[in-house]
Design goal:
Layout lengths: L4 E3 L4 H8 L6 E2 L14 H14 L9 E11 L2 E3 L5 H11 L3 E12 L4 E13 L4 H11 L18 E6 L3 H4 L3 H11 L7
Parallel strand pairs: 1-2, 1-3
Antiparallel strand pairs: 3-4, 3-5, 5-6, 6-7
Function: Nucleoside triphosphate pyrophosphatase that hydrolyzes 7-methyl-GTP (m(7)GTP). May have a dual role in cell division arrest and in preventing the incorporation of modified nucleotides into cellular nucleic acids.
Cofactor: a divalent metal cation
InterPro entries: ITPase-like_fam, Maf-like
Length: 195
């Protein structure tokens, strides 16, 4: 089956994850407001934003398979989003020290040829070891994870902050759950093993 695969993201990390499937795709950054709504549960928010990202590209790519993703972390029912500043990143890592942070990743896939939606919510737990202030500041200065939910990059030096990780798909932590995505793609008729 012929297909166009579009990733609704400018994230080089998500692009690298999707590249593992060996399928041709291109990335487009959707222009949406990623703000949460008042009292919106985390699961609802990441699924809503993932779908909004994909929806933003439908008019331009109406017949494509469009992949939207969104991710937030939670610690003691508090949302850990992107910190944007070193001070906020330090505060997030200080509060995560010695704790378990759960990452919620919403996946929304639009199949333009069938005008059909597929969605999945995936979680992944990260258990932080006890961190010193010197380790936190050292990490922040070396990796600058200011645009990463939870203030770390697990695919880089951020892995040194952890005691262990737990979940079904480690790609979920990077923001694109490949096991769920390949299941959806097979339903649509795109199989990375036979294309």
């Amino acid at each position: 089956m012929p297909y166009n695969l579009v990733l609704a993201s400018s994230s080089p990390f998500r692009q690298a994850v999707l590249d593992k499937l060996g399928l041709p795709f291109f990335s487009v950054s959707p222009d949406i407001d990623e703000s949460g709504e008042p009292n919106e549960p985390i699961a609802t928010q990441v699924l809503r934003l993932a779908k909004m990202k994909a929806t933003a590209l439908i008019e331009t790519y109406p017949d494509a398979i469009i992949i939207g993703c969104d991710q937030l972390g939670s610690l003691n029912n508090q949302v850990l989003g992107k910190p944007y500043t070193e001070e906020q990143a330090y505060a997030q890592l200080r509060s995560s020290s010695g704790q378990c942070v759960t990452f919620h990743t919403g996946l929304a896939v639009y199949d333009g040829s069938q005008n059909r939606w597929y969605q999945s919510l995936e979680t992944y737990d990260v258990f932080f070891r006890s961190l010193t202030d010197a380790e936190i500041w050292g990490y922040l200065h070396k990796e600058q994870p200011l645009h990463c939910a939870g203030s770390f990059k697990s695919e880089g030096l951020g892995v040194t902050l952890f005691e262990k990780m737990a979940g079904d798909d480690p790609n979920t932590l990077i923001g694109l759950p490949l096991i769920a995505l390949t299941r959806i793609l097979r339903e649509i008729g795109v199989n990375p093993l036979t294309q």
